[in-house]
Amino acid sequence: MNVEDLQWQADNWGGVSPPVVDLLLERGHLDLVVAAAAERGDWFCARGAVRVLCAAEEFERAWAVIRPFAETGWLPAVSAGADVLVRWGRVEEAVALARPDGATRPAAEVWRAYAEVLVKAGRVDEAISVLEPHLTDGRTPRSLVEMTEGQGNDERVLGLIVPLADEARRAQAQAQGQSQGRLHTLWETLDLQAEVLERSGQVEEAIRILGTDVAARRYGPQNTVESYVALLARHGRIEELHRAATTGGHEREALRPLVEALKAAGRAGEAETLLRGLVAANDYPGRCQALLMDLLAGQGRIDEAVEVVRPTFENPWEGLLYLAVRMLSDAGLHERALRLLDECSPEFLEETHWVPSNRWLLMGETGRCREAIAEVEATPDLDAEERDVTVASLLAQDGRPDEAIALLRSRTGLTASAAAAADLAELLIRQNRAAEAIAAIPGVAAQREAAGRRWGMWKDTESGSTDGPPTA
Q1: CA 58, CA 237: separation in Å to the nearest integer?
Q2: Which CATH number is correct for 367-444, 2.60.40.10, 3.30.390.50, 1.25.40.10, 1.10.10.10?
Q3: HEC readout, 13-29
C-alpha cells in the first residue's frame, strides 16, 4: 500500500468500485469487505467498511481497518482515520494524526484537513486561526465557511471573508490584474459573504449585498447570479426572481428557481402560464420546454409533457428526446418510451449514437430480452466489450444469470476494463457468490498495468490526433 496506488484508486474508481462495495455491504458481507481492505489495500473497501463499523459504534475495529491507510500519510486516509478517532473519543490522538508535519511547508489542503479535525474536536476558534494565514489559497475560504456552520462563529468568519470580498470589488472597479488562482478565490468570497450573512439571520442584508454585486456584473469565474437567485428562491422572493428571469437578463439562471419557488408557494398554474408564454415567444425555447415538461410530469400530466417537447425530438441543437425517454422510463412507462425511439427517422438514427443502447435497455424492461439480444448480436461495428456487457445485462434480466456470468468472465482479465469486472462482480453478488465477486476484480497493480497498456495502445493508434484518450 502506498500513496500513489491510493491516489490512483481515488482518481479512477480503481480496485473494488464504490457501487460494488455498497452492494456487498447492503447484502451483509462486511467481513469480506474488511478482508479486501487489508489484503488488497483497497481504499473503497476500507472507506465502506469504516462507514458501516462507525455506524454500529465498532470504533476499535474501524480504526484497525483504516490505520494502515492513514499511516501512509495520504490525506483522505488521514482525515478518515482522524474522524474515527474523534468518534471513538480519542480526540488528542486524532488531532496529532492530522497535525501537519513541521519538517516541510504543508499545502493549504493539509491545513484545511487539520482544521476540520479541530472543529470535530470542538476547537473551532483554533481551527479558524489555523486557516487564517491561508485564506488566499484555493478552497480555503469555502472550507472556512462550511466547517464553521452552526458553530456560533459567524461574526469572526465575516471579519475574515468581507475584506477578501471587498478586494474583489475593488479589483473589478480598478480593472486590476490578478493571478487566476487568486481571482477565483476572491470572486467566490462574494457568494460566501452572503452565505454567512444568511445563516446568521441577516437575510435582507445578504440579498442586498449580493443583488448589488449582480447589478454591477461582478460575476468572475464564479457565477454570482446563480447564488443570488438561489438565495431569493430559498426565501420565497418570487417578484425579484420574476424580474431576474424575465426582464433582468438572467433567464438561464433564474427561471428554474422561479418555477420551483412558484410550485412551493402553491402557484404551479402561474409557473405553467409563464413557461408556455416563454416557449411561444422564444426563438430557442429548449430550456423552457424542458422545464415545462418537468412541471407537467410532476403533476401526472404525462401526455401533455411529451407533447410539449415533441417538436424538438430531432432538432440537432435543442433536441429533448433523451429527456422525454428518461422521464417516461423513470415513471415506469417503458413501452411508451420505447415507442418514442421506434418513431425516430432513419436519418436521425444515423446521426445519433445513444438511441440503440437505450432502446435495448427498454426492450429488456418490457420483457423483450431475447429480441434485444438478437438485435445486439446482429449490429455491425459495435464495440466487442459493449456488445458483451449489453448482452450479459439482458441475459441476467431474462433470468439466465449463469450465461451472463460466463460471458462476462470471458471479458475479464488484464485486457478487460474495470467496468466489465464490476459488472461481473455485481452479478456474482446477486447470486450470493460474494467471495467470487471480489476475486473476479483484478487487484490495483493489475488494473494500473492494464490501464497503462490501454493508454499506450491508444497513443500508438491515435498518433497525431487532437482528441483525448478513450474513456471506456
Answers
A1: 47
A2: 1.25.40.10
A3: CCCCCHHHHHHHHHCCC
Euclidean distance between CA atoms 131 and 17, whole angstroms: 34
Cell of 288: 423552457
Cα–Cα distance, 69 to 61 (Å, whole number): 14
Residue type, 318: E
DSSP per position, 100-118: PPTTS---HHHHHHHHHHH
What is this structure's pTM?
A: 0.86
Question: How far is Cα 311 from Cα 313, in angstroms, rounded to an integer?
Answer: 6
Domain assignments of the chain as residue spans, ordered by start: 367-444
Cβ distance 390 to 376 under 8 Å? yes
Give the C-alpha separation, 359 to 341, whole Å. Answer: 7
pLDDT tens-digit readout, 268-291: 999 999 999 999 998 889 999 999
User: pLDDT tens across 132-160, in order?
Assistant: 999 988 889 999 999 999 999 999 999 99
- Longest alpha-carbon distance in the chain: 69
